[in-house]
């Protein structure tokens, strides 16, 4: 099932701007609590959650990989699953970037809407999607506005790493510097008031409220 790009661009704004049109129908998001706050980043504790995940191997463009991965997720929530179930759009769309000189891998993920969290329908095999269960974990988050672009997502990640190194020295943590995640909350057609975040997973962080590393 091919869905023209146009319908993607038309569809998302309706779903994701639904907030302002009908506040009773905000896009669902995973649950978290803020356990530490600085002026330029937060540490959040996310509850365990299920996501549908789309791997894009060997690319160089964050933007293209996100588009291609999201396209498959879009089909899944629109019925390309074993039950022909329709799932609600959620926010944010995550793109995790695993850096490699031979081509980066990008994993695009969409949170499974609350109705299906515990029992996500199986995706049609041709979509090559995988269920990703994230455990309870602490994530360092830096917000940025505008469009998340190829030429500055890595700068946002470096800025977050810089803040973490400055503020959390002594609070031992293993930061995996070879990967980071960009969270986008708005459709491509939304041009003002855009919210994005860069996420870096913190393992072994000795901050009050974070689970011990597994
Ligand atoms: C965390 O997730 C579990 C399992 O999905 C759920 O039972 C629990 O209610 C959630 N906790 C909160 C605070 O929402
Ligand atoms: C990218 O994914 C492929 C296929 O799963 C894997 O063989 C390769 O090691 C991955 N590369 C990186 C940088 O994660
Ligand atoms: C999918 O359909 C089967 C058979 O009708 C049903 O048992 C199952 O609960 C459904 N799963 C979901 C996620 O709706
Ligand atoms: C990235 O671009 C956005 C929008 O163009 C801008 O708001 C943000 O400050 C930029 N970040 C960096 C680190 O340049
Ligand atoms: C870092 O560790 C110190 C000592 O263990 C603790 O007092 C401090 O609250 C920690 N910092 C954060 C952000 O939790």
Keywords:
binds 2-acetamido-2-deoxy-beta-D-glucopyranose; 22% helix; 10 strands; 214 residues
Structure description:
The chain is of the alpha+beta class and 214 residues long. It has a single domain (9-203), classed as Regulatory factor, effector binding domain (Multidrug-efflux Transporter 1 Regulator Bmrr, Chain A, Alpha-Beta Barrel), CATH 3.20.80. It is built from four helices and ten strands. Strands 1, 2, 3, 4, 5, 6, 7, 8, 9 and 10 form a ten-stranded antiparallel beta sheet that branches. A hairpin with a 5-residue loop joins β4 (93-98) and β5. Bound molecules: 2-acetamido-2-deoxy-beta-D-glucopyranose (5 copies). One 2-acetamido-2-deoxy-beta-D-glucopyranose binds at residues 83, 85, 116, 119, 121.
Q: How are the elements arranged and paired?
A:
Blueprint: H1 5-16, H2 18-21, E1 32-37, E2 42-46, E3 49-59, H3 62-77, E4 93-98, E5 104-111, E6 129-134, E7 137-145, H4 153-167, E8 174-175, E9 179-184, E10 195-203
Antiparallel strand pairs: 1-2, 2-7, 3-5, 3-6, 4-5, 4-9, 7-10, 8-10, 9-10
Bound molecules: 2-acetamido-2-deoxy-beta-D-glucopyranose (5 copies).
């Amino acid at each position: 099932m091919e869905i023209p790009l146009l319908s993607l661009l038309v569809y998302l704004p309706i779903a994701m701007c639904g907030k302002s049109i009908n506040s009773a129908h905000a896009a669902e998001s995973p649950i978290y609590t803020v356990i530490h706050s600085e002026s330029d980043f937060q540490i959040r504790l996310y509850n365990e959650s299920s996501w549908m995940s789309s791997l894009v191997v060997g690319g160089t463009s964050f933007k293209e990989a996100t588009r291609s991965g999201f396209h498959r997720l879009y089909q899944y929530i629109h019925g390309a699953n074993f039950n022909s179930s329709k799932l609600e759009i959620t926010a944010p769309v995550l793109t995790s970037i695993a850096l490699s000189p031979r081509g980066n891998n990008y994993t695009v993920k969409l949170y499974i809407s609350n109705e299906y969290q515990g029992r996500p329908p199986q995706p049609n095999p041709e979509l090559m999607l995988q269920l990703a269960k994230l455990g309870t974990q602490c994530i360092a988050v830096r917000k940025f506005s505008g469009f998340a672009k190829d030429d500055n997502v890595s700068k946002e990640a470096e800025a977050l790493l810089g803040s973490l190194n400055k503020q959390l020295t002594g609070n031992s943590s293993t930061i995996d510097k070879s990967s980071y995640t960009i969270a986008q909350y708005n459709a491509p057609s939304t041009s003002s008031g855009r919210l994005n975040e860069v996420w870096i997973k913190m393992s072994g962080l000795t901050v009050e409220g974070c689970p011990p590393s597994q």
